[in-house]
Amino acid sequence: MEYSSRSATWDAVEVEVTVIEVDTKLGESGRVYRPVFAYKEFDRQLAVYRGNTWISPKPHEVGDVVPGFYDYATGEIISLKMIEHVRIMGQILVVSGVIATLLGASLLGWRRYKAPPKILK
What are the transmembrane regions (predicted)? Predict the structure, then answer.
């Protein structure tokens, strides 16, 4: 399955992943969290992945078994809930940008309409 959780797209398989730890730090607007995922490959050792995505509110608790994706080539693991959170935040930014652009364009149009006509001498 292909998806994009950041700016890169990669191939991964859907698996059940376990949250083995939740990192916490104080961010600009409060506490943010980063789950550490683990996946037991068939005859291999335990694959552990500490991603780079910090989010709030806390997406998972330690010990949760959640649906996620595992890339055998890179070892990256991410949960479906984390992907959805990043996708929703991106959509909010796009909608905010469209609204700001429309408001700016309407303000410029209104100022042009309300401006007194220029008289050439």
Answer: 88-110
Residue 85 lies in a domain: yes
Spatial distance between the Cα atoms of 61 and 59, rounded to a whole number of angstroms: 7
* 51: in domain: yes
* pTM of the predicted model as reported, rounded to 2 decimal places: 0.63
Element (H, E) at 76: none
Sequential pLDDT tens for the chain (121 residues): 334 444 334 677 888 888 998 989 998 888 988 899 998 877 777 888 888 888 888 888 888 899 988 887 888 888 888 888 878 888 999 999 999 999 999 998 888 777 777 777 6
Exposure class string for 32-66: b at 16+ Cβ within 10 A, else e: bbbbbbebeeeeeeebebebebebeeebbeeebeb
Q: The domain containing residue 22 runs over which residues?
A: 2-114
Domain count, the chain: 1
